[in-house]
Fold each of these.
Amino acid sequence: MGWACPLDRYPLKIVHLIDYFQPILGYQETFLAREQLRLGHDVTVVTSDRYAPFLNYTQTIQPLLGERVRPVGFKLEEGIPVWRLPASFEYRYRCWLRGLGQVLMTLRPDVVHAHNVTKLTTLQAVLLKPRLGYRLLVDDHSLLVAMDESWSGELFYKAFRWFLAPIFQRRADALIAVTDGIANTMREVYGFREIPVKVIELGVDTELFQPDPSAREAMRAELGLNPDDFMVIYTGKILPNKAPHWLVEALVHCPPQIKALLIGNGPSEYRQQIDQVIVQHDLARRVFFQPAVKQVELPRYYVAADAGCWPREGSTAMFEAASCGLPIVIVAGELAQRVRYGNGLEYQEGSVTDLARCLTYLAQNTGEAQRMGVRGRQLVEDHLSWEQINSQFMTAYQHSN
């Protein structure tokens, strides 16, 4: 038997439902839960008994998180109430949670916020809704570049459009994308055309990520940088699909004062590939590596840099760098709105010479680069603090499409 969800009740009982939850890494679900808890709402994250099967997990993430499989049960993780359920089975970054219906009956949420459309936990939330009566919001973060374009992937999306999209559209109270490009994916690839898809972007902890001149000076000294060095930072997993090697290769076509700092872990064979480029082009004094660090440690590296660069795919790190006052260089196209304030540059994906052109422009026009950084900070303050992003979600929770 379900229960009525009073739209005007405060505080709300909110469940964030997600296959994998790693609060130490941040991500949208972590920051939303924290902001909602700060405002006095009753918030629980319901997830599986394991961390996400990140590519090359033992080399990229395990040094930071530990073993993938976690204890089942309820506990506070980074201050957030988390209920971990056993995964009945796991397939291609998706889990089916055993006992989810019973947990939701116990929690009696007003709202279930299911993260990512094609996850099995989201399907479970859709199927359970008629019986349990909560309001259901489904969001998605899937860039086209990350879509499965194999024949099996095409078959999956076709089946989703035909069989599941109609059910999702009848039962979801709100559909949310984090970029305009993802909204188009939800309409065209997933088949959500009968109800609107609203865009609510990813946010930033503006108190954690902010300019800090004294920290900048200390970290640049620690890295051994000269005053005229122009440091470009990349943060994230060091994996081929993220293409940080393009940043290293771009340095070959840049003035020698442009250097790169790559923060993250990756498989040894890919690191060897990057090292070969470094040796071949005598870049050893221009490329720095730092193993992955906790999110709270990232700001001191951002403020030491002069620009941020993500050669392929999107990342919340883009906005975190912008919040620290850095201009950002990103791939052209789907992510264009992330430099809509004139706070960065776009380059043609895969073209290391075009990427080098952008980096060289910033290094040779430091006044404009700094102004871009100021505009980036303004973008975050005006639109992308978690307080503002959560306010948009709270409106979506309480008002149907």
Amino acid sequence: MNDTNSKKQEERRIFDLVYGDKSFYEVKYFESPDFLVRYFSNTPYFGVEITEYYLTETNARLDNIADYSDQLLDGNDYKHKDDRKVLSVTNIDIVNEDGSVQFKNVPAIAQELPSLNKCAYDISERIMSKAKLINSSKQYVSHINLIIKDNSDLLRLINKRDFYSIYFIQELRTAISTVPFREIFFVTILQNEHVYIPLKMMHLLAEAYLFNGAIVQNDYDRKIPNGDDYVELFGDYLNSQTTNKVLIHRDADDTEVIFGDSGIIINNDGSVIVRMHSDYAISPCAVKPNNKFQSILGDNFSEVMRKHRMTNIFSTDAVFPVKQQPTQPG
């Protein structure tokens, strides 16, 4: 099997981790983006771009070169000069929880691991660089999603509810808010479970929570006229923080704020309903928000939000187990 076929098969495997339970009319390989997908024969394609994240190029070689780890443990030389700077072959003791030594002087490959903040920063950079590469491809599709397969294994023991507070650094929030991907799926392992996280959806939920908290804690709710739509006010604030449009959709019962592939409806009791649009066309009745939040909340509300974000934590376990059933061939 040549390298191109092997790469495409791996990309399809990653694609299926997110989309494996969907029934598509067609999934076909492309170059940029990696896949063109459509639900029905008469609907436009949407694109899916795949990328993998490794801590270093050395880690990618360890993962992709057959028996490389075994060769190093057997005393063979490194495949690349940079690997010598990252890895060291040494002997370690394996100890039990009570501190007793179970195995002594076991050959092992050691590596200094970066902080999770550094990994989140790298993911932000990857999102931004991928966005630049696919800009010229938008003519073929209605929209493009990005799937990032995290191969670092550093989140394995992290609680799902802690992911946002650990990983959503300012650089990641900026990337999510500025790139044209409709959704960004982050595939990783949390609490020893293989999951994927729609990053734009999580960002939307977090911003709604923090917005509401800033409103309540600073008594802004008293300043909002009764006739003003609170949900649209939030939509206008969120729209001011992004370069990708935030939309408002009203029906007889609800007002929905749409960002990327997800929408939220905030009920009168403060509860939130999340609506997944699942790559279908957004309603043509969805429009940009009309309210100008500064005229009601003041020009310094963005600073109020910044301070509120520093002293308040958002958490959610809104992550999804990866799919097991593959889609039918396109």
